[in-house]
Specification:
Blueprint: E1 10-16, H1 23-41, E2 49-56, H2 59-71, E3 75-82, H3 92-97, E4 102-106, H4 120-125, H5 128-141, E5 147-150, H6 156-175, E6 179-183, H7 197-204, E7 207-211, H8 213-222, H9 225-238, E8 240-241, H10 246-266, E9 270-272, H11 287-294, E10 298-300, H12 305-317, E11 325-334, E12 341-345, E13 360-363, E14 375-378, E15 384-393, E16 398-408, E17 422-426, H13 430-440, E18 445-449, H14 454-464, E19 467-471, H15 477-492
Parallel strand pairs: 1-2, 1-3, 3-4, 4-5, 6-7, 6-9, 8-13, 9-10, 16-19
Antiparallel strand pairs: 11-12, 11-18, 12-17, 13-14, 15-16, 15-18, 16-17
Helix pairs in contact: 6-12, 6-14, 8-10, 9-10, 10-11, 13-15
The structure holds manganese (II) ion.
Length: about 500
């Protein structure tokens, strides 16, 4: 997979001012902006480069820099800040053209007001409380989607907010490049895995295309024993072999090599397959898909290309974070009154990035599909706060449903369950949480992520222009009904 490091993406700090204050003040504005950009750039919370580009004083300069930002592939977004007062009619023509994610950072160079030092010159230089309000008005007046981050630029929470938004912006940029390879179609008769691929490409940029399973089988046949030996050696470093059936494991290695080659040739980072359409393949890919997901590929079972693409995208947005992100499915519940939990898993394909310990390679029969028993990774998920996200096609628009969850250590050993397992408490509790999920139309397939949070995904939805529904500790059935009703009305006019 050909991926640009996140650090290679730049966010441009564009600072607003005007000529009114004279060259000396403008020099100080530039100096302060350089220091802020450097401080942010070096902060551990910030995943990408922050570059101070210019102090903008005229409509022509503003338009020029916004055009540059649009055109430059390394620029993933702009961060604007009005150190002094920048009359906002100057911004209208430029902002009309803006095609990149847009953040308004409302900060100031100094943390404190210098008691003895403050005079009219100081006030005229440090007046973002004033200038940023003028800028806020024009963005509101133009109905521009933008992120607003408020606070002192050296504070950790401000840097975290900014870093989190940058990841959303990367998601929006990367979305336009995302390709999904579908090996065969969706599982027959299933509704939620369907969707308008043309509409999705128009909105999100995803290129979703199908290849016959025969094309993959040809690739599988070409894999050499030597390549399989190398793949087996790499499995041995990552996983514990808990099976003697090496021929079976070798077949998964063969499938993985073939699928990677196929995807890489297409420039795709996500794929789907279905147990209903394996043709002459001997096993449903289990270990093969799991090991690919660990490397950042997206996967969706039963032809679910939306969840596959979202898995790849969220993995990309959270690159460098360590909690893990996986394709997931709500499978079954433990309904102990007051302690209700959901057990998540899949037929085979759960990403080992969630594993609490070293995953085990095991071979077990698969009840459906009528193929040989496949090798798969079996493990328990680790614990912590996470989200599950489901993208659904509402007909005419997309909705992303995100639920906050607390992942717990599985409360049972479940020695006869032959797949990876993760257990969680959905917010606000399972009874209400499942009610809200069903009310909003969320799928059984989700992306589970310890690294993304609701804010990051909401910002991504806002940038790309799709509906966002959040199920959190404070969600209620009454509130959700009202939100969904109003949202349906509002989207009729989009
Ligand atoms: Mn499934």
């Amino acid at each position: 997979m050909d991926k640009k490091p996140l650090r290679d993406y730049e966010f441009w700090l564009l600072v607003g001012s005007q000529f009114l204050y004279g060259p000396e003040t403008l020099e100080q504005v530039a100096d302060h902006s350089t220091i802020i950009a450097k401080g942010l750039d070096e902060a551990k919370e910030i995943p990408c480069k922050v570059v101070y580009k210019a102090t903008l004083k005229t409509p022509e300069e503003i338009t020029k820099w916004i055009k540059e930002a649009n055109y430059d592939d390394s620029c993933a977004g702009i961060i604007v800040w009005m150190h002094t007062f920048s009359p906002s009619k100057m911004w209208i023509n430029g902002l009309e053209l803006l095609q990149k994610p847009y953040c308004h950072l409302h900060t100031q160079f100094n943390r404190n007001i210098p008691d003895e030092g403050i005079d009219m010159d100081f006030m005229n230089l440090n007046q973002s409380a004033h200038g940023d309000r003028e800028h806020g008005f024009i963005a509101a007046r133009m109905r521009l989607k933008r992120k607003i981050v408020v606070g002192y630029w050296e504070d950790e929470d401000v840097r975290q907010d900014l870093g989190c938004w940058m990841r959303s912006a990367i998601g929006a940029i990367e979305s336009k490049k995302l390709k999904v390879v579908r090996f065969g179609d969706n599982m027959r008769n299933v509704a939620v895995t369907e969707g308008d691929k043309v509409g999705v490409q128009m909105r999100l940029g995803w290129q979703v295309n199908t290849w016959g399973v025969g094309d993959l089988i040809k690739e599988i046949d070409k894999v050499t024993e030597k390549e399989i030996d190398e793949k087996m050696a790499s499995y041995a470093t990552l996983y514990t072999f808990a099976t003697e059936e090496l021929v079976t494991v070798r077949y998964q290695a063969r499938e993985e090599i073939a699928m990677r080659r196929f995807l890489d040739r297409q420039g795709a980072c996500a794929f789907t397959n279905t147990f209903e359409d394996l043709q002459e393949m001997k096993q449903l890919p289990g270990l093969a898909s799991q090991n690919m997901m660990a490397d950042g590929y997206g996967y969706g079972g039963e032809g679910d290309w939306k969840v596959s693409a979202m898995t790849a995208l969220i993995k990309r947005m959270t690159e460098g974070m360590e909690g893990g992100t996986a394709f997931m499915e709500d499978y079954t519940y433990d309904l102990q009154k007051g302690k209700e939990l959901s057990l998540g898993s899949h037929m085979l394909e759960v990403c080992p990035s969630l594993a609490a310990g070293k995953p085990r390679i095991e071979v077990h029969p698969l009840g459906i599909g009528g193929k040989e028993p496949p090798a798969r990774l079996v493990f328990e998920g680790h614990t912590g706060n996470a989200v599950v996200a489901s993208l659904i096609d509402m007909g005419g628009r997309l909705r992303l449903i995100v639920q906050d969850i607390t992942v717990v250590k599985p409360i049972y050993k479940m020695p006869n369950l032959p797949v990876a397992r993760v257990m969680w408490k959905p917010e606000p509790d399972l009874k209400t949480g499942a009610h809200l999920w069903i009310l909003a139309g969320g799928a059984h397939h989700t992306v589970l992520s310890f690294d993304a949070n609701a804010q990051m995904l909401e910002d991504w939805c806002e940038i790309v222009g799709i509906e966002f529904v959040h199920i959190s500790v404070s969600s209620t059935v009454e509130g959700m009904k009202q939100q969904l009703f109003l949202s349906d009305l509002a989207w009729k006019f989009q």
